[in-house]
Amino acid sequence: MNAHAHAPVSIAVAQLNLTVGDLVGNADRIIAALDEARAAGAQLMLTPELALSGYPPEDLLLRADFYRACAREVGRIAAAAQGVTVVLGHPVEDRGERYNAASVLRDGAVLARYHKSLLPNYEVFDEERYFEAGGTACVFECAGVRFGINICADVWERGPAEAARAAGAQVLLALNASPYHMNKQAQRLEVLRTRVAETGLAVLYCNMVGGQDELVFDGASFALDARGALGLQLGSFVERVAIVAYAAGAWSGGEQVAARTLEAEVYEALRVGVRDYLAKNRFPGAIIGMSGGIDSALTLAIAVDALGADKVRAVMMPSPYTAQMSLDDSRDMVARLGVRYDEIAIEPAMQVFAGLLAEQFAGLPADTTEENLQARIRGMLLMALSNKTGAIVLTTGNKSEMATGYATLYGDMAGGFAVLKDLYKTFVFRLSNWRNTVSPVIPQNIIDRPPSAELKPDQKDQDSLPPYDLLDAIIQAYMERDESPRDIVAAGFPEGEVRRVVGMLKRNEYKRRQAPVGIRVTQRGFGRDWRYPITSRYQDEF
């Protein structure tokens, strides 16, 4: 070791918002972070997992030209790493094998390279499809301290961290693209404290931030000392290049941001998810179909907070069954938010369709067909406005509806991005109440009145569904925790309701496959981590 071995090492944590496939743009952002780190006196900078490519690149990783383009940008970042050591996450192809890698760059050279050892193939992760597993520890020295590298899933089991320690590491650097779900940060801290206890290594954990399709990354990067105490805690859902110093097993100078409440955290996840989906896909704005109900109200509030009132348009499409209070409440809310608001009555279109179908429907009683027609007329109008303006339609359906099929294909499911797709109805109420504590944008009447689709006289959701607290608990047990119906009944839920809910959930897989992508905020959403067959005759045991 050199004479400065005991002097603190200044390390920059680059908690960055990166875009999948924007290799030049991502490299520019990383180089800008490097310039910021150098100006702050950092000797070392840590980036997130696959920072260069963005995460997850999915089948871009099967293209040889993608790796060649990545290699060019790795060279550019290495050339920019003058006087600062950079640990860069990126995909690499080496002699025909593909790896999720971290390269140690300095003064134009690649000093060392680590290949991710444990490839997750659960929840939203699919890495065994793309990568080979590495098997060798990587330890490098910077300013007299020996740093080991792990990548994301590597730290969730004991082997890779212990291998780094055995290779001489004093500090473990963990590069992460760890997507958000409720209570995820508490899990990360628990797991990393276990690694610290096993190895005696201090840990620096750098996580990505920002929205990518249905995933949203919360950042919340942190450092633990050799005793497991926090020495750095960055805020969630914000880009940040932060400096922390390490010496003799301890961290110093690191900021510590207090955790948000669960409601604040989930709301911010949804806000960032909407903001980044529209920005990264270059949509000029959003259109929301208002109903006077709580789902469209919360969706509108999130959209305005994400995009600004000037980029959001609300459209109310009343039918003869729309209550006056629905109109009044919608008008009240858009006035509070200052968004463009239009009303388009759909009764004329309902009459046209009734006339067109009169001969076909002769002698048949009215049923949900006529109700669904109303939803499809509304969907058609919203999509016409979307086509004409380029703005994307944000759908308003929640997880309870997606589970049970309480939504109309090509009707209220028509649109480009489903903001509340992974939010149970009970949590929609909870989040709406929380948002009103920040500023009262949702009229209280919308929150207090019983939910209704308003597709026929005096309709209530509970005419067709169990009470939402019961419904959501059954869905959560069956869908998120994989509990059997028999176990759910044994836990005290009425067997009839369990049979009913599980039956609805199974029957409506075909609808969910056609639903727009939406933001994942629970441990299991109806998206990348829910892969059930549409055609299936499997019967659960009761």
Beta fraction: 15-25%
Number of helical segments with 4 or more residues = 16
Q: What is the helix content?
A: 25-40%
Roughly how many Å apart are the termini? Answer: 66 Å
In what order do the strands lie side by side in the largest sheet? 5-4-3-2-1-14-15
**Large-scale geometry:** elongated
Structural class: alpha/beta
Largest sheet: 7 strands, mixed
How many β strands by DSSP?
A: 20
Radius of gyration: 26 Å
The low-confidence runs, each spanning 5 or more residues with pLDDT under 50, are 1-5
The whole-number mean of residue pLDDT values reads 95
Topology:
Layout: E1 9-15, H1 23-39, E2 44-46, H2 64-80, E3 85-94, E4 97-106, E5 109-115, E6 139-142, E7 145-151, H3 158-166, E8 171-176, H4 184-199, E9 202-207, E10 209-212, E11 215-218, E12 222-224, E13 230-233, E14 240-247, E15 250-252, H5 262-280, E16 286-290, H6 294-307, E17 312-316, H7 324-337, E18 340-343, H8 347-357, H9 368-389, E19 392-395, H10 399-404, E20 417-418, H11 425-438, H12 444-448, H13 468-480, H14 485-490, H15 495-507, H16 509-513
Parallel strand pairs: 1-2, 2-3, 7-8, 8-9, 16-17, 16-19, 17-18, 19-20
Antiparallel strand pairs: 1-14, 3-4, 4-5, 6-7, 9-12, 10-11, 12-13, 14-15
Helix pairs in contact: 1-2, 5-6, 5-11, 6-11, 13-15
